[in-house]
Amino acid sequence: MTFNSVPGFDKTVRNLLVQDNGKIIVAGSFDLYKNTTQHKISCLNSDGSIFSNDISFSGFDSSVYSMELQDDDKLLAGGAFTTYNNNLSEGLVRLYFEDSSQTFQAKIDNGRTFFTGDSIRISITTNMDFNPGNIFYVQLSDTDGYFTNNFIIDTIQAINNIYFYTKLPDNLPTSDMYKIRILSSSPLIVAGINKNISIVNPKIIGSKTVCTNSIFTYYTNLFGDIQYEWNIYGGEFQGLRTPWSKDVKWTKLGLGSITLIENISNTNSSRTITMPVFVVSAPNPDITGPQLICINNEAIYTTLKADSTLNSWNTTSNPSYWKLLSDTSIVLMWSKAGDYTLTLKQSIPQTSCEKDVNITIKVMDKIKPVINGNNKVIVNSPYLYTVTGFTNSVEHWYVYGGNITGSPNEDSVLIYWDKPGTGTIYLVQSLGETGCSSSTFMDVQISDVKSVNEGTQNIYVFPNPSSDNLIIVFSNCDFQNAEIMLLDLLGEEVYSQKYESINKDFNLTIDTHQLPVGVYLLKINCGRNICTEKVIIQR
Fold first, then answer.
1. CA dist 200 to 53, 110, 121, 171, 241, Å?
2. What is the H or E stretch that residue 295 is in?
3. What SS3 class is residue 30?
4. What mean pLDDT is reported for the chain?
5. Residue 344 burial by CB count (10 A; 0-12/13-18/19+): exposed, middle or buried?
6. Residue of 449 and 383 predicted with greater confidence
7. For 158-212, how does the pLDDT look when each residue is reduced to its tens digit (9 = 90+)?
8. What is the CA radius of gyration of the chain?
């Protein structure tokens, strides 16, 4: 017996047995013979060709070290393997070889791609004599094509050729590596279907909760002999994409849906899958809180809570104090002046819907306000006081020894001092709701002087209010070294004139047409007496 074995085995041959019928059993570490897959064991004809009923359609997972042929034509094989034909066989297995004239074959007649739950037609062809009561078991591999954890999907009692339909289980994982084999019970023989089959469990993969006017991708498993048809409700397809995937822009609030119809061309099998999609409003966050605060002052920032959203807060610099009151509010405080950014990200869980909003927060050092104005005044006289400090602030004025009679603008007050002695102005300046505030005070000395018409002297001032001229008439007066002054509310002199003496029936006209409209103080020093009168210029 001679033959040419080129090309031969790709790895070591460790054992060789010749049967009485001339068939040759070869085992070892090889995976190929004559460029044909033969996992560790092969049955050859006497001319070196591969026996058509080769038992080794899956073979061993590791090397075979020894073999022994028994009298009943069964073979004992031992080695480093753990499986044979994807069945658990740790190191030792007993094999059966049918006669070369006998056949036991199985095939699938209606395609190679199926949906879960489809029926497949299996044909069994044999010239063997199976024992009465023989049962053919239909076994399905795992998703990788191995029978280690196989399960039986059908059984049928028969002893010769037969075809039948077997229903695939529902809800199988999708894979294109499934295998099916037939196992007879009497005698125990395996007929493998060597080609893989694809079993598809149609599913639409993509977001089930989305936001309006955003684009989301949906796809399904790709198989070459499946045709795909997509339909959409509540949105629009964007671009071409591929037959097995689509981009969808959802435009309508509420419950939408995406439907996929899959057809297997060679079996006419069809499946329709519809995925409900809940379309919600896109996030539109807003931050409420002060954007101007003082150092070491706490400030609260809030946002409105939208349905099914999560909020995430962040700042560009670590504040000295940070406390999350809830998902929608946070307390912050900084110990250093500067400009800081507060960012709020609002997102919808299990979607890519999110939006950021940020505000700039100016943190400033506290400034002590300063009161500007006369701290030495005359009783029964009005005076103007102003403040410097914060801008855009709120002022609260408190006065002892006088009354606030007016406020020309936001940063000033007009005070009429009506009690001689020491008066006090107390000021609190604050920046709205920031909690940023400062205070100060000014003591004012109030002089007790006589008014114009007190005593025996008669002095008349008219017209009052005046527009262009102010006339002062001294009746029955006799003063030495007199001084006449006109002061504005800041105490600045707008007119001053000194006289060595003032006799009876003396009169004086002061030109006031260039003076601004307002309140003035006429002050007359008459020896040891000081006389005052409030004068109003108006037009």
1. 31, 15, 17, 9, 22
2. none
3. coil
4. 84
5. buried
6. 383
7. 998 999 999 999 989 999 899 998 888 888 777 777 678 899 999 999 989 888 8
8. 53
Q: Report the alpha-carbon distance of residue 396 to residue 17 in Å, rounded.
A: 112
β-strands 292-294, 354-364: how paired? Answer: parallel
Of 424 and 417, the structure prediction assigns the larger pLDDT to 424
**Residue pointed to by tokens 């962040």:** 314
Strand order in 321-326's β-sheet? Answer: 299-302, 329-333, 321-326
Single-letter amino acid, residue 71: D
pLDDT digits over 430-484, tens only?
776 666 778 889 999 887 654 444 444 567 787 888 888 888 877 666 677 888 8
What pTM value is reported for the model?
0.50
Alpha carbons 52 and 102: distance in angstroms, whole number: 11
* Single-letter residue type at 44: L
DSSP code, position 466: B
Q: In whole angstroms, what is the distance from residue 61 CA to residue 91 CA?
A: 10
**516 DSSP 8-state letter:** P
267-286 exposure pattern, b = at least 16 Cβ within 10 A, e = fewer:
bebebeeebebbbbebbebe
Angstrom distance (rounded) from CA 230 to CA 275:
11
Whole-number Cα distances in Å, 241 to 50, 230, 236, 480 = 48, 12, 13, 107
Domains of the chain: 13-96 (no CATH), 104-200 (2.60.40.730), 209-280 (2.60.40.10), 292-362 (2.60.40), 370-447 (2.60.40.10), 450-537 (2.60.40.3080)
3-state helix, strand, coil in the chain (%, to 5): 0, 60, 40
Which DSSP string corresponds to 518-538? EEEEEEEEETTEEEEEEEEE-
| Contacts (Cβ under 8 Å, ≥6 apart) of 209 | 277, 278, 280, 308, 348, 349, 350, 351
Q: Evaluate whether 72 touches 97 at the Cβ level (below 8 Å).
A: no
Q: Is residue 40 over pLDDT 80? A: yes
Q: Say how far apart CA 385 and CA 373 lie, in whole Å.
A: 5
Could you tell me whether strands 226-233 and 190-200 are parallel, antiparallel, or unpaired per DSSP bridges?
unpaired
CA–CA gap between residue 449 and residue 529 (Å, rounded) = 7
CA 303, CA 316: separation in Å to the nearest integer? 19
Query: Distance between CA 120 and CA 109 in Å, rounded?
Result: 8
Q: How far apart are CA 405 and CA 522, in angstroms?
A: 19
Chain position carrying tokens 């070869």:
26
